[in-house]
Amino acid sequence: MYNFEFSNPKTIENATKALSSEDAQALGGGQTLLPTMKQRLASAEVLVSLSGISEMVGVSQSDGTVSIGGATTHAEVARQSREAYPALAQLAGKIGDPAVRNRGTIGGSLANNDPAACYPAGALASGATIQTNKREIQADEFFRGMFETALDEGEIITSVTFPVPEVANYQKFEQPASRFALVGVFVAKTSGGVRVAVTGASNNGVYRWREAEAALSTDFSASAIDGMSGDPSDMIEDLHGSPAYRAHLVGVLTRRAVSSCS
Amino acid sequence: MAADGGMGFATKRREDVRFLTGRGKYTDDYSPANTTYCAFARSTVANGTIKSIDVSVAEEMPGVVAVFTGEDFVEVGGNPAGWAIVSRDGDPMKEPKRPVLAHGKVRHVGDAYAAVIAESLAEAMDAVEAIEADIEELDAVVNMADALANNDVLVHDEIGTNQCFDWGWIEDNRAATDEAIKNAPHVTTLELVNNRLVPNAMEPRCSIGEYDPGTGDYKLTTTSQNPHLTRLLISAFVMGIPENKLTVHAPDVGGGFGSKIYHYGEEALVLAAAKKLGRPVKWTSTRTEAFLSDAHGRDHVTKIELACEKDGTFIAFRTETMANVGAYLSNFSTATPTFLHGTLMAGNYTVPNVYVNVKAVFTNTAPVDAYRGAGRPEATFSLERVIDKAARELGINPVEIRRKNFVKPDQYPFASAAGLEYDSGNYDALMDGLEKHADLAGFEARAAESAKNGKLRGLGVNSYIEACGIAPSNLVGVLGSRVGLYDAATVRVNATGNISVMVGAHSHGQGHETAFPQVVADMLGVDPMSVEIVHGDTSKIPFGMGTYGSRSLAVCGSAVYRATEKIIKKATLIAAHMMEDSAENVDFADGEFSVKGTNKKVGFGEVALKAYIPHDFPIEDIEPGLEETAFYDPANFTYPSGAYACEVEVDPDTGKVDICSMVAMDDFGNVVNPMIVTGQVQGGLAQGIGQALLEHGVYDENGQLLSGSLMDYAMPRADDFPNLVVDHSYATECTHNPIGVKGCGEAGAIGSPPTVVNAVVDALQRGGHDVEHIDMPVSPARVWEAMNG
Ligand SMILES: Cc1cc2nc3c(=O)[nH]c(=O)nc-3n(C[C@H](O)[C@H](O)[C@H](O)COP(=O)(O)OP(=O)(O)OC[C@H]3O[C@@H](n4cnc5c(N)ncnc54)[C@H](O)[C@@H]3O)c2cc1C
Predict the structure, then answer these.
(1) pTM above 0.90?
(2) How many folded domains does chain A comprise?
(3) B783 shares a domain with B698
(4) Is B182 inside a domain boundary?
(5) Residue span of the structural domain in which A32 resides
(6) What is the rounded (10 degree) CA torsion for B740, B743, B748, B752?
(7) What is the DSSP letter of B574?
C-alpha cells in the first residue's frame, strides 16, 4: 500500500469538498478498494471515508419505495429491508461473508459496478434511482459496462431508492472461488411489467434480458421462458465457465427466480 | 497399562490452548532488535533473458540498506534435488542449477531476480519498484506435451531438452506387462489429468536471517517442516555455512502440506544479507508471492490401461505419465512422481504385472513438488478411476471387482508387483466396514429420493493403499534418495521427575505436543502433562528428518519409544541400587519399581531424583543423570489402507455437485489419540474433496497464473462438506515398528479424490449420460459440459 491522507467528513457537503482535491477517492467499506491498494494496484492521495456521514447511512421506506443510504452496509440492508423488500434483503445477505457484509456498502458496490456483483442486478431490475451529491440517475442510465458507471469524478452515491415490486427474487449461482455471482438473475414484477437483470454473465456488465422480460410480462411463469437461454455472443469466458455455460445459466436462474416469486 | 491420557485416549490437544487464544508464536511474530525488511523483485514474464538489472536508483532510495541480484550469488551452490533418478536408458536425470536469485534468465512468473533490504517493508517495496530490469521476454513453454515434443523453447538451455528424466518402473517388467496386455481378454484405457494444486497453507512462508559477528553464528528462523533438513541443504549445498555455526528454528508453523518441506532461495538470501549487514533480515511472503513461488502440487497427465479377465480378475496395469516439475527441481520433486507413485501402482491388489513410465518435464511454471499425499494420490486416482471404468465395461459391481482382486489377510507379507512388501492389512474387513457404515445397500432408495427432487445421485467407492513412515534408509537409498530417512529423539527425565522429549519431527498441525507425550507417559506410568515435547530448533533437538509423508509417529514416535525403553532400562539399574537388589529382580509397572516377591518399591520420581543426586552411586556401573537418545530407522515403509465411499447429488440444470456423504474407513494400525487421527483424516478429506471439486492451478499459454489469487483459486470451505464420517477401528498393526502405527496424515487426501469423481460419473451414468470421465476439478461448468456433449 502506498501512503495516503485520510479524511473522515461528517457531512455530504464536506465529503464533496474533500473529493474535489486532486487524486482524492471515496472510500466506502473498502472491501474492493483496500485489497487493491494493498497490492499496490491502486493508489490515492486522499481517501475520503463516507462511513461517518450519518445522512448516508440507513434504510427508510415511504409509499412503495425503500431508500438506502449510500454508505449503508450490506448487513444493515439485509436486516432493515427484510420486510419492506425481502428480495433485496436476501441479495444483500448473500454477498460475501459476514466480514464483507459488515463493511461493504451499497454505494461502493454500485459505483464499482463489478461485472459479477449482485447489487447492480437488484438496482437495474428494480428500476432504482441513484441519488448522488449532484443529481439523480436512473438505473437504466447508470451502468455503462464493466466497472463503468455514469458517475463523474468526485461524484458519490448518497442514496438509492428502490420502487418495491409486487414480487421479486434474486438467484445467484456462485463462482466457486470468489463466490461472487458466476451468473445472477434478479427478476422484479411490477404493475408496469417484468424486469429481468443479469449479472456475472456479460462482458458489458449487468444488463436487462429483454426477451425474457417480454415473455414474462405476458405470462409470469417459468414455463413462459421454457427453453430460453441468454445470448452467449458477448459473454464472459474464464476459468469458471464458458459463454455457452453462462448463457445456459441465465435461462435456468431466470426460471428459478420466477418460480420462487410465486 | 494405559495411564489416563496415555495410549488410545482422545486427549484434547494441549497446543490448541495457545493456538485458539492467539498466543501461538509464528515466525513473523518474531522481530529481533534492528530488524531490516526484505522485498523481492519477481519476474512478471514466464521466460526471459535478463539483459541488465540497474539497481542504482533503488540503492539510493530512502531507508534502503542493500540490494542483491543474482550476480551476488553466482559463487554459491545450487539448491539440489534430494533424489537422483536414473532414466530408462541409464542416463542420470538432468539437474540444472537452481540459484538463490535468478541469474541470466528468469524461468517462471514469480521467479525472484533481485532483493531489496530496507529499514521498513514499505521502503523495501518502493525500492523494488525502482529497480530497472531489462528482461527480454521469450516464448514460454507451459504444456508438457509441447515441452517434450519440441526443443524450440527450453526452460534450461544448458541441458538441451525439457525432459528431466524418462523413468521406468520396473523396467524389467515392461516386456511382460506389454505382453500381458496384448493377450488380455479385456483392456480398459483411461486418460486423465491430476490437477495442479497450490498449497495455500494459512501461514505464508516467512524467513528471518541473523548473524552474530562476535561468534560467527548464523540463525535462520523459518517456516519449515524439517529444520535439520533445511540446515543440511544450506550447509552442505547452498552456502557452505558449517552446520555447527547455523541454527535453524521453525517455531509455530501454520500449516505446510508439503510446501514447507523444501529449502527456498529466500532463506539463503536473508542469511547472506544478515551476514553482510550485521543486522537481522526478515522476509514475509504475501499471498500473491505464495501463489507464484511456493512449490505447487501434483500436475500429472496420465494414460492408464487395465487388462483383466472377463470375470474382472486383474492381469496388468500399465501407466504412462508426464509429471510437471516446473521451472526448477524442488527438493523432493524427483521422488514424488517416481518412488512415491510408481511403487504404489499395484494398489491393494494381487495383480501380477505392473509397469509405470514417468517422464518428468520442465516447464515455465512454479516448481512442483510433494503436496499432502505426494505421489500416492496420483497413483490412487489413476488406479481407482480405471478400475471403476473397467467395472462398468464388464458389468461388475465396483465393490465386487475390488474385492475379487484384494490381497487377502493370509497373504502377508505380500510382495506387490510394483516392488513393495506390504506387511499387514485387511482390505476386505475395511470394505465390510464401509458397506455397513456407508449403508451401501440403502443407496438405491436414496437415489430414488434424490430423483424425486430432480437430482442425479451417484455412489463412488474406492480402496487405497499408501506407503508412509517415509524412511527405511536402506530402501530409499536403493531408490535414489541422497539422504537417510531415520528420525531421532532424546528423552530427558529432569531431576524433579518431569520429562522433556527432544524430537526430530516438527509439529505444524499434527498434534505431536499431545500425542508424543501419550506414548512416553504410557510407558513410564506418569502423568502425560508432566511430559513436554521440544521440537523445531536444531540447537535443541537431535538430528531428525522432520515431518512429511505421514512419518512422524511411525518413525520419530518409534525413536521416542526406543529412547524411553533405554530410560526404563537405566532407571531399573538405579532402582535396583536404591532397593539393594539386582536389576534382574526388579519389575517396572505403573510408574513403580518393585523387587519381585517382596514389598520393596520405589516410584519413578524418586529414581529420577536419585539419578541427579548420586551421592552413593556405584559410579563405575551407573552414570549419573537420566537422559537417553535413540535414532530409529525402520525396516520397511508402513502401509495404511482404506475403503472410502462418497455419495453425491448432481443438479442436472447447472452441473453443480453436492457431496451428500463421505465415509472413510482407514487402517492406521494402532492409534495413539483417536481424536487427533479423526481430525487428520477430516483435514485430508477436505483437501482431497477440494482437489476433486474446486482447486485448480491454471497457467495460460504465456505462463501467467490465471488462478493466482483466492478470487479464482477455489479453496474448500466448511460449507462444501457434509459431516465427514471417519472410522479407524478396522485396524491391523504395523509389524515392524514398536508402536504398531502406520501414519494417518495424508490418507484423506489420497483416498477421497477418486471416490468423489467415481460418484459423479456414476450419477451421470445413472442419469443416462454417457460420460466416462471428467477431469478434476469437477466444477459445475465441466459437469454441465460433460452432460451436454
Ligand atoms: C471476499 C469478498 C467477497 C465478496 N463477495 C461479493 C458478492 O458475492 N457479491 C457482491 O456483489 N460483492 C461482493 N464483494 C464486493 C463487496 O460487496 C464490496 O463491498 C463492494 O464491491 C464495494 O463496496 P465497498 O463499500 O467496500 O467499496 P470500496 O471498496 O470502499 O470502494 C469501491 C469503489 O467504489 C467507490 N465508492 C465507494 N463508495 C462510494 C459511494 N458511495 N459513491 C461513489 N463511489 C463510491 C470507491 O472510490 C471505489 O472506487 C465481495 C468482496 C470481498 C472482499
Answers:
(1) yes
(2) 3
(3) yes
(4) no
(5) 5-49
(6) -70
(7) H
